[in-house]
């Protein structure tokens, strides 16, 4: 059964551009997959735990040897990875903060990049790794206050997209589509109408979800 994992990382609510775009993606995806299921994680409003010493110990302790404290420390990680394994499709709403990703999304990644669960070392002893989340499709919706596209003065400061592409590829997700909403700062200042700004991006989102605008 098609299953979509929907993740929002923005701490904003109604003012969030990435949230509005992921909502539109989910609506279009559901229309294209009427029998599909949705799993939702709101990282921006309900952040996952940060990595702790106990968590690290749990990761590197065999499951059968873990104490109660270690099992408790890795419970959230196990749940998050189970969601990734269950879903066939992902949509991530990720705003850019300080040229990279929102802290809530980085904390999420730290919980799910786990040896033996989402990646594994190859058997040849070379130290090479292979991702275990193969066959998944990810759509990443990124919002940015300014312009970071190729050729812009800030293009070299865009650590958001290459890092997301690398880390998803590391765990085996290589079928990735990006939708970029950049130059959003004028929206906050009321210099650009929200509907006017979002209209072409919403069309992109619907196309990525499997629908074209009528």
Could you explain the architecture of this structure?
The protein is of the alpha/beta class and 214 residues long. The protein has a single domain (3-209), classed as Flavodoxin domain (Rossmann fold, 3-Layer(aba) Sandwich). Helix content is 38%, strand content 21%. The chain has 8 helices and 8 strands. The protein has helices at 17-32, 53-59, 68-73, 75-86, 103-112, 160-170, 185-188, 194-209, and strands at 3-8, 37-42, 89-97, 100-101, 119-121, 129-131, 137-144, 175-182. Strands 1, 2, 3, 4, 7 and 8 form a 6-stranded mixed sheet that branches. It starts with a strand and ends in a 5-residue tail after the last helix. 31% of the residues are buried.
Identify the CATH homologous superfamily: Flavodoxin domain
Helix/strand class = alpha/beta
How many domains make up the 3D coordinates? 1
Percent of residues in helices comes to: 25-40%
Mean of residue pLDDT values: 94
Tell how many strands the DSSP assignment holds. 8
For this structure, the quaternary state is: single chain
Morphology: globular
Per DSSP, the total helix count is 8
The level-1 CATH class: Alpha Beta
Tell me the radius of gyration. 18 Å
Low-pLDDT stretches are: none
Distance between the termini: 26 Å
Largest sheet: 6 strands, mixed
In N-to-C order, the SSE pattern is EHEHHHEEHEEEHEHH
Please report which band the strand proportion falls in: under 5%, 5-15%, 15-25%, 25-35%, 35-45% or over 45%: 15-25%
List the helices and strands and how they pair.
Blueprint: E1 3-8, H1 17-32, E2 37-42, H2 53-59, H3 68-73, H4 75-86, E3 89-97, E4 100-101, H5 103-112, E5 119-121, E6 129-131, E7 137-144, H6 160-170, E8 175-182, H7 185-188, H8 194-209
Parallel strand pairs: 1-2, 1-3, 3-7, 7-8
Antiparallel strand pairs: 3-4, 5-6
């Amino acid at each position: 059964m098609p299953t979509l994992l929907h993740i929002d990382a923005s701490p904003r609510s109604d003012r969030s551009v990435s949230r509005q775009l992921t909502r539109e993606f989910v609506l279009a995806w559901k229309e294209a997959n009427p029998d599909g299921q949705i799993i939702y994680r709101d990282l921006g409003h309900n952040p996952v735990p940060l990595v702790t010493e106990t968590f690290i110990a749990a990761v590197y302790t065999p499951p059968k040897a873990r104490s109660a404290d270690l099992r408790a420390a890795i419970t959230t990680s196990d749940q998050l990875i189970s969601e990734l394994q269950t879903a066939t499709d992902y949509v991530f709403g990720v705003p850019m903060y300080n040229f990279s990703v929102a802290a809530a999304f980085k904390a999420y990644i730290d919980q799910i990049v786990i040896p033996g669960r989402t990646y594994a070392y190859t058997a040849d002893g070379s130290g090479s790794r292979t991702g275990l989340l193969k066959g998944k499709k990810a759509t990443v919706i990124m919002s940015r206050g300014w312009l970071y596209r190729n050729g812009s003065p800030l293009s070299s400061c865009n650590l958001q997209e290459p890092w997301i592409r690398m880390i998803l590829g590391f765990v085996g997700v290589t079928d990735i589509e990006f939708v970029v909403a950049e130059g959003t700062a004028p929206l906050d200042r009321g210099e650009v109408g929200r509907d006017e700004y979002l209209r072409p991006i919403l069309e992109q989102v619907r196309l990525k979800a499997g629908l074209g605008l009528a």
